[in-house]
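We include the entry.

. . .
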Amino acid sequence: MGYPRKLTRRFRAFDNFAISFTIINIISGIFSSFGFGMGAGGPRVLVFGWIGVSVMVLFVGASMAEIASAYPTSGALYFSAGKLAKRHKGAWSWYTGWLNFIGQVGGTAATDFAAATFIQSFVALQWPSYHPTAPQTVGITAVILLLQALANTYTVRLVAILNRISVWWLLIGLVVIVAALIAVPSDHQSAGFVTHFVNNTGFSDAVYAGMLGLLVTSWTFTGFDGSFHMSEETVQATVNAPRGIVRAVGFSALTGLVLMLALVYAIRDYAAEAAAEAPPVQILIDALGLSTAKLLLLVVIGAMLFCGLANMTSNTRQIFAFSRDGAMPGSRLWHSVSPRTRTPVKAVWLAAACALVLVVPGWWSHVAFTAVVSINVVGLFLAYGVPIFLRLRLGDDFRPGPWNLGRFGRPVAAVAVVWIVLSNILFMLPQASPITAESFNYAPIALVVVLVIATVWWFAAARRRFKGPVSYGSPDEVAAMDLI
């Protein structure tokens, strides 16, 4: 790929799968967004929407995996965009990289903020006199970011071990939650409840409400580019990185459906639980009792913390690669690697600091925080879509790696691009009526702000010095630089 090797290859196939599976994180994703789905379509959209969207995301993941096999670098999406573009390689790479960067930073901020919120919910259940406040949530989030940055600072091996633990935490936690929801309640909803439709969005159009409900699954399925970003630290990356992406998406789809069904059929008082501050937590309390619900809430919090850790790891590698090509202010600083730990330590702390900057507005305004982190999903999926679109446009000139889709590559890429366009339109539409300052969807504004800044920066300075991925020399010359 034209780069000297600075990062050590200690991620095996399971480790590479583990980081994307952890970032997708079905427990964190479903528990964070289940309440929105209860009002936007209800059980029908929560269950069947999960199935439909999972299939579409699998198309996106498979197409990304094919590209990852051809270009296994930490730069991932922005690197492949620069290589796949016929013209204006620097511009395609520039916009993809910045969309990916802001999306990943937003993902870390949103996940850790959600973890802080659920931690306070647990504390309030344990000690009813405790009353959570916005400043406390921001403070807890800052502590979480600090601990995750420290974990990412000390060797890839530690991160790999934590990601392995996270997989088993998610799987065992899933089994425990589902088993409890099946065995403990004396009664469940009838089989036909899965077709129950609810529209509490404020919009009269049921179809529109149901389409909004699809966002529950889309919100969950983000971050599987993590396997791509860890390519330079994965053994046999041309095969293991693409397999990690596809396996993470497929396994998350199956296990997530089981968890979704367990929660839906455990619902008792639909209206009351949907109106609760944390609907899935209220479902656990009503179905299992307070003591068991608190225990399972710890499982959910642990899943969110692991998710945030993996998010930061992926974000760090993207910063490292983007800086290596001179695309970020202070690039020389951010792509440096610690000679002791062989990790991009400075990039770790930049990722943590940027996430904290996005969290700080939550101190005085939840709306401001929502406006900032809403770019997470939109930024990521647009970054996913650019290299897939360029691969589709390249046609037969695309040179696949060892893991490829063969003659199905172009049809799969076409479906992936169509879905990314449709899902991003959904992400930017109003999600509640009446539209007020509190209910307004700030994703389009956040996206425009990011694109305007990137465009002004591009034409003012970057286009003269950034030409896309940089080659450091011939294969022999690069090999001589390895680990220097």
Summary: The chain is about 70% helix and 0% strand. The mean pLDDT is 88. Strands lie at 40-41, 198-199.
